[in-house]
Amino acid sequence: MITKLPYECLLKIFNNFNTNYRILFSCLFVCRHWCKIIIPILWSEPTKYYSDIRLVKIYLSALNAEEQALLIPHKINLPNYQKPLFEYSSFTTYLSFYLSHKHVDGVSHWFYKEGYNHYDLVSFDDNQGFAETINAIKSSLLTMFLRTSKNLKYLNISEPIFDKALLEKIQKNITITSLKLRIGNFEIIEFLSEILYKNTTLNTLDISKNDISFKELEVLSKALCNSTALISLILDNNFLCAEGGNALAEILSKNTSLSSLSLHHNQIGSQGVLAIAKILYKNNTLSYLDIGNNQINVEGAKVLSKVLCVNNVLTSLNLSYNSLNSKSGELN
Predict the structure, then answer these.
(1) Which distant-in-sequence residues (6+ apart) come within 8 Å of 257 by Cβ?
(2) Pairing of β 178-182 and β 154-158
(3) Which position among 225, 230, 259, 315 has the lowest Cβ density within 10 Å, counted as fewest Cβ atoms?
(4) What is the pLDDT of residue 331?
(5) How far is Cα 159 from Cα 210, in angstroms, rounded to an integer?
(6) CA dihedral of residues 24, 150, 143, 180 (deg, nearest 10)
(7) 162-176 b/e with 16+ CB inside 10 Å = b?
(8) 19 DSSP assignment
(9) Which residue has the higher pLDDT, 106 or 204?
(10) Phi and psi, residue 314, nearest 5°
(11) What residue stretches are annotated with the F-box domain (predicted)?
(12) Domain 177-332 belongs to what topology?
C-alpha cells in the first residue's frame, strides 16, 4: 500500500505535483500522515501564484498585536478567524510582494472587496492613499512571515514596503538563500553590506534596477570581496559605468565563491570591460558572465575573446546588444 511508504518517499512523490493543486487537494483527506506532508507543499509559495482573497484573510488573521498595530492608522477591517489547525505561514519558502493592480494582486483585491472601513468612493480612488494603505498591509504581512516562517528561502521586497525594522529581521534570518531587492536607497545599501557580512546562507543576490552607481557599489565592495557564500550576483539595469567595472574587477580578484555575475545594461563600456578582462585571466570560479548592452565596442570584444582562450572556467558569456560587428570574435 502506498500509504505505508516512508515519509521521504511520499514527500518526493507529492513534490512532483507541487504546482498541481487539484491532485494535492484530492490527497489531503486520505489520511492524517498524508495531510501533514501535503500541507507544507501547498502553502510553501503563497505569494507566487495566488490572487484569492481567502488566502489573504487567513494570513491577515495570523498577525500578532504588534503587526496589527501598524495598521491602526489606516482603519482597516481585519478578518477575525479562529485559530487554524496549522500555522500556514510557517511553511513559507518563497515570498514576494509587488504593488499590483487591485483586481490582480491578492492583498489589493482583499482590501478593495472587504478591508476598507471609512473609505468612500472618492477617497478610495485616491491612488496615493490607496497605495500607502496597501503598502502598510504588505509590510505587516511581511513582518509576520519573517517571524513565523521556519524555512524561508527566497525573499523579494519592493521599495514601498521596505524599512529598517524589516532589514534588521532579515539580518537575523538564517534560512534565506536568495534575496531580491528593489530599493533605490543609499542607506539601504549600507544595511545590505551588513547582511552580506553576517548572513552565511545567502548565495543569490539580485539588486538590479536600483540606480546603483559606482558610489553605492563601493560601499558593497568590501563585503562582496569577503563573502564566501555568495554564488550569484545580479546587478542588471544600474549605472555602474567604467568606474563600476574597475570595482567589479577588484571584487572578482578577491571573491572565491562567485560563479555567476550579471551586469546587463550598466554603461560599463570597453574601458570597464578591460579591467574585468584582466582579472578573468586569473579568476577560476566565475562560469557565467552577462555584460550585454554595455556599450562595448569591437576592441573590448577582442580582449574578451583572448580571455576565453585562456580561461576554461568561464563557459557562458553574453555580449548581446553591444556595438559589435561580424569581426568582433576574431582573434588578433
Answers:
(1) 227, 228, 229, 230, 231, 285
(2) parallel
(3) 315
(4) 43
(5) 10
(6) -80
(7) beeebbeebeebeeb
(8) T
(9) 204
(10) -70, 105
(11) 3-46
(12) 3.80.10
Rounded distance between C-alpha atoms, residue 178 and residue 156, angstroms: 8
Rounded to whole angstroms, the Cα distance separating 195 from 173 reads 10
3-class DSSP assignment, residue 25: helix
Residues 317-327 have a mean pLDDT of 84
Residues 38-93 have pLDDT tens digits of 999 999 998 776 677 888 899 999 999 999 998 999 888 898 888 888 999 999 99
Integer CA distances (angstroms), 53 to 39, 80, 104, 247, 271, in order = 19, 14, 10, 46, 52
pLDDT at 166: 81
Three cell numbers at 156?
523579494
d(CA 276, CA 246): 7
- Rounded-to-integer distance, Cα 259 and Cα 222, Å: 18
Cell numbers found for residue 193:
553590506
**Average pLDDT for the chain:** 87
Q: What span, in angstroms and rounded, lies between the C-alpha atoms of 237 and 263?
A: 8
Q: How many CB atoms lie within 10 A of CB 302?
A: 18
Task: Quick: pLDDT tens for 146-193.
Answer: 999 999 999 998 765 667 788 888 888 999 999 998 876 677 888 889
Q: Please answer whether residues 239 and 211 qualify as being in contact, where contact means their C-beta atoms are separated by less than 8 angstroms.
A: yes
Cα-based angle 81, 85, 89 (whole degrees, multiple of 5): 75
**Calpha distance 296→271 (Å, rounded):** 8
Residues 218-264 pLDDT 10s: 999 999 999 999 999 999 999 999 999 999 999 999 999 999 999 99
The mean per-residue pLDDT over the stretch 109-138 comes to: 70
Max Cα-Cα span within the chain: 73
Task: Work out whether the CA dihedral 216, 218, 221, 223 comes out positive or negative.
Answer: negative
Q: E-strand spans in the chain?
A: 94-96, 154-158, 178-182, 204-206, 232-234, 260-262, 288-290, 316-318
3-class DSSP state for residue 158? strand
